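Folding Query — how this chain folds
Tokens — whole-number codes for backbone shape
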Amino acid sequence: MLSITFLGTSGSIPTVERSMPAIALKYEKELFLWDCGECAQRQMMKYKIGYGSINA
């Protein structure tokens, strides 16, 4: 199953409601991150995405 999580959707300046751009795509046991800007680590913690689970 494919799962897409938008970790941030703001532009170049984060706001209180929106973090810098970052997308996590999970397919079966693989996890891929795209456009990981500043604050991506904080958002990964918020959505309970472990650092060790990243494949690319």
